[in-house]
Amino acid sequence: MALIDKLVVCGVGLIGGSFALALRRAGLVRRIVGIGRSEASLARALALGVIDEASADWASALDGADFVLLSPPVGQMDAVMAAMAPHLAPGTVVTDAGSTKRDVIEAIYRHLSGHLPHVVPAHPIAGAETSGVEAAFASLYQGRNVVVTPLPENEPAAILRVREAWEACGGVIHEMPPQEHDRVFAAVSHLPHLLAFGLVHDLAGRANAEQLFGFAASGFRDFTRIAGSHPEMWRDICIANRQALLAELDQYLAELAYLRALLLSGDGDRLEQLFAEARQARNAWAEQFANNSANPASKSE
Amino acid sequence: MALIDKLVVCGVGLIGGSFALALRRAGLVRRIVGIGRSEASLARALALGVIDEASADWASALDGADFVLLSPPVGQMDAVMAAMAPHLAPGTVVTDAGSTKRDVIEAIYRHLSGHLPHVVPAHPIAGAETSGVEAAFASLYQGRNVVVTPLPENEPAAILRVREAWEACGGVIHEMPPQEHDRVFAAVSHLPHLLAFGLVHDLAGRANAEQLFGFAASGFRDFTRIAGSHPEMWRDICIANRQALLAELDQYLAELAYLRALLLSGDGDRLEQLFAEARQARNAWAEQFANNSANPASKSE
After folding, report:
1. Residue A171 near residue A141, CB atoms below 8 Å
2. Do both B169 and B187 map to the same domain?
3. Is B82 within 8 Å of chain A by CB?
4. Residue in B129, B204, B238 closest to A278 by CB
5. Which CATH number does the domain housing residue B242 bear?
6. Of B191, B226, B278, the CB nearest to A197
7. With contacts defined as CB-CB under 8 Å, which chain B residues touch A215?
8. CATH code of the domain in which B91 resides
9. Is the CB of B270 inside 8 Å of chain A's CB atoms?
10. If DSSP codes are grouped into helix, strand and coil, which group holds residue B224?
């Protein structure tokens, strides 16, 4: 992969910071400029050596930049693109790390329509339980899936450049259409988060909430771990991907209606059969996942 | 606590075996007899020194017994009580470790109606991810909640004996009515299990199941950990406690209907508010739970 002369990271938190650290460790970047809505966060990124320079305006940040990573909360993506658009040079390659893709792509068409050949959307599947630049580390993406969802207008060279950058971070690259990406992650990530937030919210609002939590044990702890995730980030994801998420929720509601019918009729045989199928699928997956996640950062999401 | 001269454990798995090991370590039991439907399992319990004797029939097992723990799968409880009833001496104290209480108590009234003063139902909140006597260990109940749900007919001395036995195992004793027990655990344990089994079963049945599982990450892993639980055990629990579980499921379905409405209307503010409340409640609980679970067995359920 060719050296990046000037990398701009917008939103230097766990995701953006780890991308910067990984490329620096790989010796693939000469200078890293951070930009974002929080001055304090940029100052910490500078103090930690994650970036070489904190920039207050897009004009200077993008001056001479050859690669840009957009890693703000997805709800900020629209404003970020609007602000950067006037200062983006024709050849600069842009990618993002948004957890949803359809909404990011809508923002790209809205604000970066003159740059479509070089704007290549992506989503690294890593990080979430911790946040902030202090949590960033160079091997976050080691062995992790990175989904790239190219636009029809993308230049093959730009797609390659984005793939190579994520590969240099240790990522395992997959390409798929953005709609497919959003459906897949609605099912395996966004819906579970919604369900966990919902259960805790339901119980916390009960008159006997204290008693209930007093008897909750380790099964509850693991099931609800993702209900400790960042509310703003998950609001943005759920809103951005709400079409796919609603479809997944409705399918899950149908599953619950079936389970409800089995309970109501006391159909232990079918219930056991369903539990056994779920257990078998879950354990087979978990074994494979553990083997694939042999890196020490496997606590990340 | 007075010494138990002859302890009978019916169902010598993780739960029954750990009870036996804990009382033996505390020096509070002279002889331990195991009984159960699996000869192989009893032979292993004997080989491991968890029991002193494996008994093939209730008549000899109960001869001279002063304390009995019933820890078979809850679905076996009815048959177990029917089999033991003719051989139970008037003064023998009986307790159980069933995860549900209303159904166990129904079986008690059905089969042990002549022994009500000395049959004291209980539920230790520990163990589940592993099973079998090989997984048993003496400190399983250390610092764990044990819910005792006395019958109106119980003799105070029998309740005290059962409380003392679980306390000697390290348990923290709570008394509550059985209906309340079943409602509490439907909410914080049985419903989460049902939800996790349901999600995995839903996804495993999709045409693109392989793709979906391929992109599932650590959030999914933790959320679905309890879907790896034992199908027969959870069938029994769900069927036995289906009234309370249906009530909890319906309340949760109402929560999901609310979340669905927020998604449909794109109400990010209320969604974020709900997520923030859930996160706050979850993290406050998790901190307290971690402090209370300072024993090395905290992987248990």
Report:
1. yes
2. no
3. no
4. B204
5. 1.10.3660.10
6. B278
7. 125, 145, 147, 184-185, 188
8. 3.40.50.720
9. no
10. coil
A79 at interface of B, judged by CB pairs closer than 8 A: no
CA distance linking residue A226 with residue A240, whole number of Å: 19
- Cα separation, A97 vs A101, whole angstroms: 9
Least Cα separation, residue A137 to chain B (angstroms): 18
Residue-wise pLDDT for B94-105, tens only, equals 999 999 999 999
Same domain, A36 and A53: yes
Total number of domains constituting chain A: 2
A90-122 pLDDT, tens digit each: 999 999 999 999 999 999 999 999 999 999 999
Instruction: Kindly determine whether residue A215 and residue B147, on different chains, have CB atoms separated by under 8 Å.
Output: yes
Domain membership of residue A130 as a residue range: 4-176
Whole-angstrom distance between the N-terminal and C-terminal Cα of chain B?
27
Same domain assignment for residues B207 and B126: no
Same domain, B30 and B163: yes
The residue-averaged pLDDT of A68-87 equals 95
DSSP state of B96: E
Radius of gyration from C-alpha coordinates of chain B:
21
| Vertex A123 angle, CA A192 and A238, to 5° | 40
The tokens for A109 are: 């068409």
Quick check: B200 contacting A, CB < 8 Å? Answer: yes
Tell me the average pLDDT across A212-223: 95
Phi and psi angles of residue A136, each rounded to the nearest 5 degrees, phi first: -70, 145
* Residue B250 forms part of a structural domain: yes
Give tens-digit pLDDT for B186-226.
999 999 999 999 999 999 999 999 999 999 999 999 999 99
Shortest alpha-carbon distance between residue B291 and chain A (Å): 12
Residue type, A67: F
User: Looking at the partner chain, which of A128, A220, A249 has a beta carbon nearest the beta carbon of B188?
Assistant: A220
Asked if the Cβ–Cβ distance from B255 to A201 is below 8 Å, we say: yes
Phi and psi dihedrals of B146, rounded to 5?
-125, 120
Q: Which of A145, A203, A221 sits opposite B187 (nearest CB)?
A: A203
**A235 occurs within a structural domain:** yes
Q: Is residue A274 domain-resident?
A: no
Find the CB nearest B189 among A219, A231, A268: A219
Token duo for residue B98: 């069933």
Q: At what angle do helices A268-292 and B191-204 cross, to 10 degrees?
A: 70
The answer on A204 and A122 residing in a single domain is no
Instruction: Provide, as residue numbers in chain A, all residues whose Cβ is less than 8 Å from the Cβ of B295.
Output: none
Given strand A93-96, what is the order of strands in its sheet?
A53-54, A29-35, A4-10, A67-70, A93-96, A119-120
Whether residues A219 and B195 touch (CB distance < 8 A) is answered with no
Residue B296: band (very low, low, confident or very high) from pLDDT cuts 50, 70, 90:
very low
> Chain A closest CA to B242's CA: distance in Å?
6
